[in-house]
Amino acid sequence: MKKIGILHGMERSFPEAFVERINKMGHKDIVAEPVSIDKVEQGEPSDYAVIIDRISQDVPFYRAYLKNAAIGGAAVINNPFWWSADEKFFNNALAVKLGVPVPKTVLLPSHDRPTDTGEASFSNLKFPLSWEKIFEYIGWPAYMKPHSGGGWKSVYKLSNMDEFFNAYKETGQLVMMLQEEIIFEEYFRCYCIGRKYVRVMQYEPRNPHHLRYVISGKPASDKLVKQVHDYVLKLNHALGYDFNTVEMAVRNGIPYAIDFCNPAPDADVHSVGQENFEWVVEHAARYAVERAQQQKAGGDNLSWGSYVNNSVAAFLKSEKPATKTTSAKSKSTKK
Question: What is the pLDDT of residue 31?
Fold first, then answer.
């Protein structure tokens, strides 16, 4: 019997519906349940073939548990090693490389020095930064937000230089990024599961939370929805996320990827609405079962994105000639 576990915090509607949906599918050799953790011993496998992670971004103990479970053969969704390495500024840089439009963005050092560092720790950092050039490049209004994400915590909308420096002082040791504002005509929030199931949802982030999926007016054009759909797949294939949301703002007919590092996205029925909730429960359950059926006990069952896979492939390719040369030289010496 293979077990699919869901690791979650205070949320209830999605985890409960997810477990119930899988258990009603009638697979004799697969069962779903909330993850139960007791003794975590290094290198020992967990009880789960698949684990859906909804909470480790807030609980470092869970992140360490999931890495250990992955070593033991669990297919962890999302990959806890990549999730630990990724952040929103890198997301934007990768999108530029992929040809997906993103807002103009710059990375800023933390206003306060990190603990246990001094002036000498920053001898490679130009001071002061070229603030005028940065502001000219980004323009006003602009958004300042943590480079690693964190929902809407420490996010500032700024209209001028004075507002920027006042807000910057409040950010302490957070590494921030400054980003141009995209004044949009349309906005989408898209679920992407398994890098193949996509739900494109019209979304209005300026509405109250419970009304953001309630859109008045005509639906988006098929051509625009198709373009958004393709960008969503392109981003998630590169990043390697198997459960993610991508938010896209449309300016002058061009979709800009605004936020696409959401590996534990909101899936609560009260905020996403019944129809979207039904879709995400069904497709998350379907994909978890697929991964359980593919899972090989004790093997490496994690998935990685094309960015990492291509980097590894390029490295291995570069190593092959050196290996052959060494081998030939070794044989010649023996003679």
Answer: 98
Whether 194 is in a domain gets the answer yes
313 occurs within a structural domain? no
Does residue 151 surpass a pLDDT of 90? Answer: no
Domain total of the chain: 3
> Which of 56, 49, 53, 70 is closest to 2 using CA atoms?
49
Cα–Cα distance, 48 to 257 (Å, whole number): 34
Give the domain range for residue 198: 186-274+286-292
As a whole number of angstroms, the distance between CA 192 and CA 216 comes to: 24
Q: Is the pLDDT of residue 334 over 80?
A: no
pLDDT for res 214: 81
Q: Is residue 19 part of a domain?
A: yes
pTM of the model: 0.91
The residue written with tokens 């019944």 in the block is 274
Residue 166 included in any domain: yes
Q: Cβ distance 54 to 15 under 8 Å?
A: yes
Helices of type H across the chain: 13-23, 60-71, 80-85, 88-98, 131-138, 161-170, 222-239, 269-272, 274-294, 306-334
Spatial contact of 108 and 164, defined as CB atoms under 8 Å apart: no
194 — pLDDT class (breaks 50, 70, 90): very high
Q: Is the dihedral of CA 77, 78, 80, 82 positive or negative?
A: positive
Can you give the CATH number for the domain in which 210 is found?
Answer: 3.30.470.20
* Amino acid at the residue 228: V
Q: Please check whether residues 38 and 53 belong to one and the same domain.
A: yes
- Rounded to whole angstroms, the Cα distance separating 203 from 188 reads 5
